[in-house]
Amino acid sequence: MALPPLDDTIAAIATAPGTGAIGIVRLSGPASYAVADTLFASAKGALPSELPPGRAVYGTVTDGRAPIDEALLLTFRSPNFYTGQDVLEIQTHGGPAVVRGVLDACISAGARQAGPGEFTLRAYLNGRLDLAQAEAVLDLVNAATDAARRNASLGLSGALSHKLGAIQTDLTTAYAAVQAAFDYPEEGVPDAMLTEPLTRAAHEVDSLLATAQAGRLSRNGARLAVLGRPNAGKSSLLNALLGYQRSMVSATPGTTRDYLEAPLVIGGVPVTVIDTAGIRATSDHLEAGGVELARAVARGADVRLLLLDGSEPLGTDVAELVAETSGAAVFVASKSDLDHAWEDEDLRPFIGAAPLVRVSAVSMEGVDELRTVITDLLIGDAATSELWISNERHASALRVVSQRIADAIDAPHDVAALELLEALNALAAVTGRDGVGEETLASIFANFCVGK
User: Fold this and answer.
1) Cα separation of 224 and 11, whole Å?
2) Is the distance from CB of 408 to CB of 423 less than 8 angstroms?
3) Is it true that domain 226-371 has CATH number 3.40.50.620?
4) Which of 72, 106, 130, 283 is the most exposed place for a label (fewest CB within 10 A)?
């Protein structure tokens, strides 16, 4: 897959589809100012190419025959803006016909319609961003929670690249020590010159990898299944977690035949909570279908909550219920505002050391504790880390680095040199410092929106 040309001038709508207060069309490339000269008339008469950088100029944008709209023109000069090229932004009213008309005028004047992520691709190839920072741009655009936004902002600021740079320094130091042992075998190399930087690098890599699950979930979201017998309080718990009534609550067993989904944020992770049909043996065809759906939802969930009615005896089928809900990660004793029919230790033989929380959807007792338990399952120790690895490409490369370091520590020097070289190559692939194949770049930037 070939990359697009980089020496022509591209144009794209940079604002979201639909109607808005403001629409932006962005130009980048060597002919940006020439294109603007043909379609933008400043109120003060100056051509865009005559304007200094860093200006916002009021005027009219035309299609060569008639005005399209009043507009602001923002001017930026190479190499000091996002793409490293001359860049212009035309801001108009945000009607789709207006913005599309401006884009068509740019293309008629000699620009090319930009493809997905082409502006950020040019920023990377022109040295304005490394590859990890470029990918953080996409994460920032797609961030659905504050946690995802903060993590993407850190990536864009270079925080991840800085950490990777420190790891690269340690690996390079160790590699140099191995090479010195080859060049001066009679002098030898102190073990500390190899083991200390590798131990330090291994610790940093493993610390980053420990955040990979939290990062993946903050980026892609998690699925939380609420399971249990009929009338265990599943719908009531869903409503309590959401803070509003999303699911109908009925005292009649077996009324939920399908599953119901609702979004919320727990621990900075976007979570889809799924209220399922009550699990029990039944001859009702529709209810049986709902039970099978509940089991399927349980298998595909990132976190499973199994509700057991705390006001009713556990029942002889509790072991079977625990087993068929895939060994739910969190067990919830519901209806804690009522008299307890069983104690926590009665359930322990069936669930071991798994978390058990007593909750009342009426008094809200235990709901905050349950949120904390779910947060621990979703993000674990990553809660104490400022930066999360949210990109699977990065996580995959770091797993290679971790394994290569582990193999190098106890290996003979000739093998250690090869392992360290592989580790350095895998690390460089994250930031793209030593170049990345065109196919990889095209795949990464194909996920971007047009105009970014």
Assistant:
1) 42
2) yes
3) no
4) 283
Instruction: Check whether the bond before 79 is cis (ω within 30° of 0).
Output: yes
Residue 276 confidence (pLDDT): 78
CATH class as words, domain 10-129: alpha beta
Query: Cα separation of 26 and 10, whole Å?
Result: 8
Q: Which two tokens stand for residue 375?
A: 């947060």
Q: Considering the entire predicted model, what is its pTM? A: 0.82
Please provide the CATH number assigned to the domain covering 136-211+388-432. 1.20.120.430
Q: Residue 183 pLDDT > 70, yes or no?
A: no
Q: What is the Cα–Cα distance from 9 to 29, expressed in whole angstroms?
A: 4
Are 267 and 379 in contact, with CB atoms under 8 Å apart? yes
Of 255, 257, 239, nearest in space to 247 by CA: 239
Six token digits for residue 188: 């030898």
Q: What is the pLDDT of residues 269-296, one digit of tens each?
A: 999 888 877 676 555 656 656 666 767 7
What residues pair up with 450 in beta bridges, in sequence order? Answer: 116
For the residues 113-117, what does the mean pLDDT come to?
93
Among residues 422, 364, 366, the alpha carbon closest in space to that of 397 is found at: 422
Question: Are the beta carbons of 9 and 31 closer than 8 angstroms?
Answer: yes
- Encode 255-288: b = buried (16+ Cβ within 10 Å), e = exposed: bbbebbebebebbbbbbebbbbbbbbebeeeebe
CB count within 10 Å of CB 7 equals 8
Domain borders along the chain are: 10-129, 136-211+388-432, 226-371
